[in-house]
Task: structure prediction
Amino acid sequence: MAAVRTRNKSFKIVATLSMVLLMAFFSACEILATEGARGAIAGGRELREFEDETLRPIENEINDLWVNDIEPREREMQDLNEELRRLEEELLGPLWAAQNDPWAPGGDASVLQA
Result:
């Protein structure tokens, strides 16, 4: 800028003020971006604290219910269903066979239909 020679010093003043304003603008943008990042980090911390205080106990309780109550009962139901199927085969199978019904389970008609 010093190399530019003008009769009117207003150009130098305008150029200098423009440079100062431009530098101030970039500094303000940097400050705002830094504050935004700090706010986001603080919000993330608050969210993690909320999760730890509120959601973790609920997740632990759900896990305990699953392990202690639901899974054993599901296994028990599967075992009972298997026992029911076995008893049906043992007890009802001979009865169906004794009827000589072609539509009975295992009969000719039911086998052909399947």
The chain has one domain: 10-95. The mean pLDDT is 81. DSSP finds two helices and no strands in the chain.
